[in-house]
Structures are given as structure tokens and as C-alpha cells.
Amino acid sequence: MNSQHYCLLLCLLFLAQASAEIHYYDFVVQATPVKRLCNTHTIITVNGQFPGPTIEVHNGDTLVVNVVNRAIYDVTLHWHGVRQMRTAWADGPEFVTQCPIRPGGSYTYRFTIDGQEGTLWWHAHSSWLRATVYGALIIYPKQGSSYPFPKPKREAPIILGEWWNANPIDVVNEATRTGAAPNISDAYTINGQPGDLYNCSSQDTVIIPVSPGETNLYRVINAGMNNELFVSIAGHAMTVVAADASYTKPFTTPVLMLGPGQTTDILVTMNQPAGRYYIAARAYASAQGVAFDNTTTTAILEYKFAGCSAQPMLPLLPAFNDTFAATAFAAGIRSPTQVKLPDPVNEDLFFTVGLGLLDCKIGRTCGGPNGTRFTASMNNESFVLPSTLSILQAYRSGVPGVFTDDFPRAPPVQFDYTGASVPRELWQPVRGTKGLKLKYGSVVQIVLQGTNIVAGENHPIHLHGYDFYILAEGFGNFNPETDKARFNMMDPPLRNTVAVPVNGWAVIRFKADNPGVWLMHCHLDVHITWGLAMVLIVEDGVGELETLEPPPADLPAC
């Protein structure tokens, strides 16, 4: 490189850094009274807002969020989908990368968002606090850049949530005490409101104003706890342009399906007669015989001059168990151009994901089937969070007894994973806190294989600290001899959460280029509560840019 080119490169780097900004937010976690479904409830919020504040940044910006805990519960916050390059201390899962912020305590999350654009979100990552502690995280293109599609007239988040009349912490604590499944939610919400189809709710239904002819960008987030959701807009087609803060090939669809944790950006053109049109969401319930919330939440797309007395039209949503619709939607999501996949694979892993049952303690009867206790696992290991020190702190400080690094690279026993009658001796996993070490720079491919133990179900599997390519999905047992021919090596989607099909499998690939301890788990919170999780421990590479930053001085004490 000659001196002229070198100077030009330095100038470009300087300009890129000069255009980046630092955004400061103050988050106060506090108890707040809100009225929903005819009654006033005290819930945990950030800054008294439900949903919480929307964070807006540009690609390349830095976020500094000071969190003060004025609630009665321990809390942490997770920045869902943010890569957190070398800043695992800011990732947020309780007892994985930090100890919780105790009542009265505080912690400042500091991290840079680089190379990501689109819609992510933030949420509590302690117990079930995320039922009400969540908000949107919007990443605009770098200053001076633009979307890879025509600029929309307006933008708005559409945040799907799940509401309990009871305190969600009480709900999960009762289930943990008895071993039974937790009570199902009482409603779904859009931007915090249930909508017209619930009692005492129509006066607060969310209204999104539009004008004829405009094309708008809506950022759809499934912040629900335990249900995947179908979403549709009456009379209007939706063009998907991004998912999990990665742009996609645009494709038009009448319905979306989002697992908890997933986001989808859509363009909608207002090409219908002036009127009022429902945006509606209800469950995709893939597990047979399992209770679920079968209600429908709505918001209203309201055209200018439509008149507020006009009765909105309801969209046609798929049946609750319409796996074909869910599969067709997932198949439509592709990267916008041909991608350069990391290669060659040097960590070829196979993880089963599914439910299980544990025997109750002698002399007790638990609330699960036949007096057992519900559990869940990956490769027959049911994950138990530490309680005295975070895994990341134990790993970096060499503290023994907090975790082990012997998570199995494949199931300890091979069996007919999705068969109708899995042998009962395979229903009881082993409880423990296990991780798997990866060398920096290794190329990792994981087969995520669902099982039919207790009940087959679609599992939204989220990996912290990484995006990954989804090479293929299918039903039944993954067959390496035949299914590799189905891999999409051209334009696979880049996601942070993959919905593993019910009684099926998905294959993901990524390069382990971010040192730290990274939680991989099912984003159905009932399942992570039961142990459907593990951690990947990515070692440092060579030099400062491949090494985890030191822990911040204000990291919460354990």
C-alpha cells in the first residue's frame, strides 16, 4: 500500500469514527400501577413505561445505559441480538455474564453496535421480569447511508407481548415449587394494549394512523414469553425486508410468524379504501395436547378521514396448529445476495432440544404428569444457573465449582428423536451447569434436533453474542447422508434466533469470533426455566482485538 492509499484509508476511518455518536440513557426499574383487563395491577417497568423506552441509534454508535434498580426483585437487562463484540460483560443474562443488580443497586451497560441495522430489542433477563420489562432497539443505517429499499413515509414499532393478571414472578415461582407447567397468560398485547377483543380494553386499543398511498415501515417484535405468534393485517400485504436486524430479499406475504425473541421488518402500502383495519396476532401452538392462550390481540391501522366509528376489518389468521403456514413463512426469509459462508467447518456439533420429566423427591408428589416434575434439556443436560458467581466471572478468574466445560458435542445416546414412543429411560435428563469451549476463529456448525419427549414443539433457539446462518430446516430426524444436499449455501438467512420446527431440525453455522461466555437457550421462557439451555465459551484469540475487554469497575457484586 503506497502512502497516498494509506492516508486515504486513515481519512476514511477518521470520518467513520467522527460520524458515530454516543447515546446516554437512564433506566429506572420500578413498580408501576397500570390498568389492564378491568383491573389495576402493579407491574415492574422501566421509567414507568409499558412497554419501556424505545432506544434509537445508528449503525456504529455506542450506547451507555445506566440502570438503577428501585424494584423489589433482582434484575439484569439483555440487549437481544446485539453482537457485543468483546463486551460480553454488557450482555446481561443473570449469572451467565453478570450477577444481578440487587434492589437499590445500579450498573451501566456500555457497548458499541457495529455492522448491524434494523430492529432488535432489549428485555430483562432475570426470572420472568421480561414479561413487562422490554422495549424496542432500533438501529438506523450509518449517518449518510440509506435503507436498501425506498425510504418509507413513516415508521412504527409493533411490539407483541403477553399479559398475566397475576404477578408473572408468582406464576413462575409457583410452577417451580410444584413442578407443574405455569399458568397460561390472560392476553396478548400490541404495544402494551390487549385490544378490542378483550374486556375493558377497547378504549385503549393502539391506533396507528396512516394516509392513502403511503408506504410505511413497521418493526414487528415478538416480546411474548411462551408463545410463537402469527401476525396479519386485514386487507394489506406485508413485504418482509429484514429479520433480526439483517436485511433480507424482499418477499410479500399475508402472514408473519415470529417466535419469542424474533423481529421482522415489513413494508406496507396503504392501497385500500379509507377505513380501519385490524392488525391481529394469535398463537402458533405446535405442541399437541398442551394448554395455550388462544386469545387474539389487535391494534388498528386507521386511514386519514376514515372516521373513528367505522368497524375495523379482521384479517384471516392461520389455524393455531398450522405448521405449514409457519414453515412457508420461514422458507421465504433469505439473505439479499449471495453470502460468503464461513468455511471449512471444524466444530461439527449435534444438540438435541426438548422436554423431559424428573421424578419427584421421595415422599412428595409433583404437579407434572403422573406426579413428576417438568424439565427440559439439550443433549440430555438440563441447565442450572449458578447462584453465587456468574459463569463469565468464574471463567475469567479461574474460580472452580461454578461450571464445568464438558457439555457433550453430541447426544450421549442416539435414538429415534422424533419417534412416537421414545423410551422412558430417556425422559430424565441430568441437571448441571455445563459449557462447551470453542477456539477463537473456529467455524461452528450445529444441528439442532427437536425431540418428541413429552411433546414435540417448535423451539425458538437464541444464541447470545452471535448471528448465524440457517442452512436448512426439516422435519423428522436429521440425516447427514441425505439432508446436507438440502443446505442453502447461496443465500441462507442471517438470524440470532431460529425456530426449530416441531419434531424437526435446523442447521446453523457461524464463526466463533467473539470471545466470552454466550448463552444458547430456548426463548420460550417456560423452557429456559426448565433447563433448555447451555453456554458456549469462546476463548480469546491473538492480540487486543481478539480478546475480551476487562470487566467494568461497576460490575454488580455477587
Automatic annotation (TrEMBL):
Localisation per UniProt entry: Secreted, Extracellular space, Apoplast
Reported cofactor(s):
Cu cation
Q: Which GO terms describe its cellular component?
A: apoplast
Molecular function in Gene Ontology: copper ion binding; hydroquinone:oxygen oxidoreductase activity
Residue ranges of every copy of the Plastocyanin-like domain listed in the record: 29-143, 156-304, 407-540
UniProtKB keywords: Apoplast, Copper, Lignin degradation, Metal-binding, Oxidoreductase, Repeat, Secreted, Signal
First-level EC class: oxidoreductase
The record ties this protein, via PROSITE patterns, to: MULTICOPPER_OXIDASE1, MULTICOPPER_OXIDASE2
Give the EC number: 1.10.3.2
UniProt key word Signal: yes
One GO-annotated biological process of the protein: lignin catabolic process
Q: Which residues form the signal peptide?
A: 1-20
The catalysed reaction is: 4 hydroquinone + O2 = 4 benzosemiquinone + 2 H2O
**Which NCBIfam families does the UniProt record give?**
laccase
The similarity annotation says:
Belongs to the multicopper oxidase family.
Name of the protein this chain belongs to: Laccase
